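Quick check before the chapter quiz. The format below is the same one you will see on the exam, so make sure you can read both the input and the output lines.
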Amino acid sequence: GLIRARVGRDFPTDPWEQLWGAVMAVFESWNNDRAKVYRELNDIPESWGTAVNVQAMVFGNLGQNSGTGVAFTRDAGTGEDLFNGEFLINAQGEDVVAGIRTPQQVTLEGSRRWAQLALISEQERAEKFPSLEELMPDIYRQLLAAETRLENHYKDMQDVEFTIQEGRLWMLQTRNGKRTGAAMVRIAMEMLRQGMIDEKEALRRVNAERLNELLHPVFDPAAIKGARTIAHGLPASPGAATGQIVFFADEAEEWVRKGKDVILVRQETSPEDLRGMSVAKGILTARGGMTSHAAVVARGMGKCCVSGAGAVHVDYRARTMSVGDQTWNEGDWISLDGSTGDVFLGQVPTKEAELTGDFGALMELADRYKRLGIRANADTPEDAKVARNFGAKGIGLCRTEHMFFEGDRIKAVREMILSEDETGRRKALAKLLPMQRADFEGLFREMSGLPVTIRLLDPPLHEFVPHDEANQKIMAHEMNVPLGVIKMRVDDLHEFNPMMGHRGCRLGISYPEITEMQARAILEAALNMKAKGYDVKAEIMIPLVGTVREFNAQARVIRQTAAAVFAERGEEIEFLLGTMIETPRAALIADSIGQQAQFFSFGTNDLTQMTMGFSRDDAGKFLPSYLKDGMYERDPFQSIDQKGVGLLVKMAVEKGRSVRQNIKLGVCGEHGGDPTSIDFFHRAGLDYVSCSPFRVPIARLSAAQTAIENA
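Here is the expected output.
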């Protein structure tokens, strides 16, 4: 009756018709919304299509000596070498995954651990929730033998599904199991130590992007002691997450669009919730075990998840979550610890991650195989410290303008911009000099013994002045000039396309005193830190050149300043003078630039912008639909466009090396931390890539993987 009401015809009685209906349903599922979201998240091409597997059924719902279950040959959350899984008596496969009934544990060890977490006594556990090992010891032994054999054959952690039909075990399927980033690292390193795989295979096993999960902050143990625990569930996917409670997946997307951090709280999740799950900071479910939809999907996404928190009651209509007689509303803050299963009230502070144990060992292994050096883009001593702790071998890009926005400095910068003449500008720059020098001293201290590449002022001057009247008034008052003067100067600075305007080396050529001040700050800082016993390796980088004359004009100012500083101090320090290759013309004439410059660093963000004619700030309006329609396979700002922009990089590498064999070649655009781009840079023959501090481990592993694949 239900079928007739929904579809308008009777359920077919012909088995062939039933079979073809089922086969077509699987084929058609390739284009449903959930499949599309999953493809987007996992970078799966639409052209692959899907396959249909037709097999005979066995039944787990034929009574008390039948059942069904899902098991992992190792722990998918932590990577521990422990067979574990869940089963239900008198049930079919989907019942375990749906998270509607509470499943029991396959192993006795797992069952005892589960009871501890669920706060159930050993006696109650043995009576009400016995493990498969206790309930059907013979079946359990067969299952154990099968999982061992499968893991030894595939040499990877397996996710197996099985059914027991009237006392007989059937293995339904096996596949490489989804796992968290932490488990991925531990399993690879343990299998290496156990002799199951070799070093190269261990490096291949870890998806570099997934290391992200291990680099993000964890709850500060000191803060947890004082935090109030309001509920407890299964530690389904590790991590620390803090956010506001939201009950519906589509609303979670709206909240995140408004810039809010959300925790998605559900009775249980289903595939319809995928989009909301992917944007949430963490996921909390009241029902379901470690193999429920929420748990498996969260682990695959590297998202913090606590599942099966039985004490939590979710009321969708009232938009509340309650535990006992306490109630919390949508928008209230909670924190989840996906490694322990704890749910805390409010926002719990976090602390930085560390490279220790298996993660540290994996990184050391990666360093033995990689050829590319890995540096970091860092503007402050704090960033430099994080980068060095993550294994960066230097700074590939320090953006000096980032230092101009702090505190009182912006006043001096504005004073310089608004000055009528060189004398006024020099007066303002004299105030900035000691501030810049102190910044560079901090960087040289943190990076002692490693190269530090400092880029001269790059952005257009309009970025430093206020554009609204309220702030213009404050500025006029501070600088003791009429508001009209400020307005006029701000109007003068207006540019229609500032990214291609008065910026980069063009500023230094118009106002050589800026370059002079920066060069002096760098070299004085270098000499000061050298005097304190630090090993300083300074590299000065001229941005945005398009002609050799531009490079030479700026190089002349820097060398004259260096001569003056060295004469004043009575001592010298070596430094390299190089440039950023970020205009297509610079790539085309790289041989003549290479005769003057000691190093090139490719600014691939700007190079992409100018080569493709996309404005980085505006491309967001059309790029997403462009990618969807297949105009480009990947976002060229995230992964380098190898056929176009990449060709310019290759050409510049060849031209640069043809005139200066020992020229140092690196990349400091966003692409420096993208695994696909790193593979390209390795093949193009660069010396190093530079990326944000938190991507350094990802780049180290990617560089090793590409070295192995291209050996």
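If your answer matched, good. The radius of gyration is 30 Å.
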